[in-house]
Amino acid sequence: MQLLKFYIFFIKEFIFSFAFFRKLILYKIKRYSKLSAFKRLKLNTESIFIDLGGNNGVVSQYISDKFNCNVHIYEPHKGCFKVLKEKFNNNKKIKLYNSAISNNNNYKKFYFHSMIKDNNFYDLSLSESASLESKKINISRKKFKIVKCTSINNVFKKFKHIDVLKIDIEGHEYKILPTIYKNIKKVDYVFIEFHGRSHHQNFKKNYNYWKKKINKSLYKKKFINW
After folding, report:
1. Residue of 211, 137, 162, 204 lying closest to 47 (CA atoms)
2. pLDDT band at 25 (very low <50, low <70, confident <90, very high)
3. pLDDT higher than threshold 90 for residue 87
4. DSSP state of 185
5. Distance CA 100, CA 102 (A)
6. Which CATH class is domain 25-102+152-225?
7. Would you tell me the crossing angle of helices 204-215 and 173-182 to the nearest 10 degrees?
8. Are the CB atoms for 96 and 81 separated by under 8 Å?
9. What's the CA angle centered on 194, arms 193 and 200, to 5 degrees?
10. What is the helix (H) or strand (E) element at residue 102, kind and residue range?
11. What mean pLDDT is reported for the chain?
């Protein structure tokens, strides 16, 4: 049984290591239907795509395959970062940063899903739920690692212009939104997963505040609820 699982894993990894098969199969899987939101983008080889919360790199891989632009991925999860290094080792247009994005430069607790067994913080099956937010309902305050955090201000100082800023940082988006809002002229589009819209209702107050603020803004079309 274990040998069969190994062969299935090997075949899947081998097939998806080729752009042709990723476009033919991977990106059409229902699980990755959200990728269709990026189809209408008009990026080129000089464009800058910033991925905050890169996880296993599917989004950045899609952007790279489709547009061959410059991609910068920030991901604090050690297990995910290992996957990212293996996946993009030979791609010079993709830069990796083993860091969380926050409202300041610091070291913070990075909480893991409550269902992780034996405190296996390299468990990739639940890695997408890890968060800097201790109030997130599906994490455990007892299961965490201390991770490096990079200020969102540093990101804006690093780039004169950002074509796309993608944010999926599990509730912590509300800590960096004030800075993004102040620098919105430097960004063409912000694709953001807002917690509190339809899930994680403990973020509902944050969501309602920013929804109202963005809707009143001249730049509301730049924000894509992803």
Report:
1. 162
2. confident
3. yes
4. G
5. 6
6. alpha beta
7. 20
8. yes
9. 115
10. strand 100-102
11. 91
